């Protein structure tokens, strides 16, 4: 399975390397784009457009993929999936400490992206209004009650997802949590099995009903 790992604010793709190494050891192909500017000054929608371009360039057009996104990257990824058509290709979406209901810290950083992550922002309201586009794909949100970047920490709990608590002692430690890695691997394996069954069933239907081709 191809997996796109999307970093958070002030980071680069390399911060996702420990998670990517773990997933690669399970036979997956991991992609670690670095989105710029990584402080979100041009807006999360602009970063989502970069993500779309990266996926179009580096992933096979006829294959499904999973999105694993951290912090700000979880919101960037949702915009890509919901508003830029990514939901048509994605097999699953996994959010790690993403500010789905915003974060109070966004009030203290003067960029467009930070404003979009304020609790109650128009940007987040737009995402919530379009969340039905992700209804068909598996989703999980990982969060820690000890998060000091996503405030309140429960903002990482998006009701549309299965919510998984990982008691990491700090925001960045989520990316090296063995518990998270094991759970994520199991979910991706299940997604792979489901996707394979779906493809096999679709092919069977087409063979039995060639007029549908």
SSE arrangement, N to C: EHEHEHEHHEEH
Q: In percent, how much strand structure appears in the residues?
A: 5-15%
Structural class: alpha/beta
Q: How far is it from the N-terminal to the C-terminal residue, by CA?
A: 26 Å
Query: What is the CATH topology classification name?
Result: Rossmann fold
Counted by DSSP, the helix tally is: 6
Name of the top-level CATH class: Alpha Beta
Based on the coordinates given, report the CATH architecture.
3-Layer(aba) Sandwich
What is the overall silhouette? globular
Major pleated sheet: 6 strands, parallel
Helical fraction equals 25-40%
Total discrete domains: 1
Average per-residue pLDDT, rounded, comes to 93
Strand order of the largest sheet: 2-1-3-4-5-6
Query: From the alpha-carbon coordinates, what is the Rg to the nearest angstrom?
Result: 17 Å
Low-confidence stretches: 197-207
Protein model, in words:
The protein has 213 residues and is α/β, with parallel strands linked by helices. It has one domain: Rossmann fold, CATH 3.40.50.1820. 38% of the residues lie in helices and 14% in strands. The protein is built from 6 helices and 6 strands, in the order βαβαβαβααββα. The protein has helices spanning 17-25, 44-58, 72-83, 112-116, 122-129, 178-208, and strands at residues 2-6, 29-31, 65-70, 90-96, 139-143, 162-165. The protein has a 6-stranded parallel sheet with strand order 2-1-3-4-5-6, sandwiched between helices. Strand 3 (65-70), helix 3 and strand 4 (90-96) form a beta-alpha-beta unit. Helix 2 (44-58) crosses helix 3 (72-83). The chain is globular, with a radius of gyration of 17 Å. Mean pLDDT is 93; it is low at 197-207.
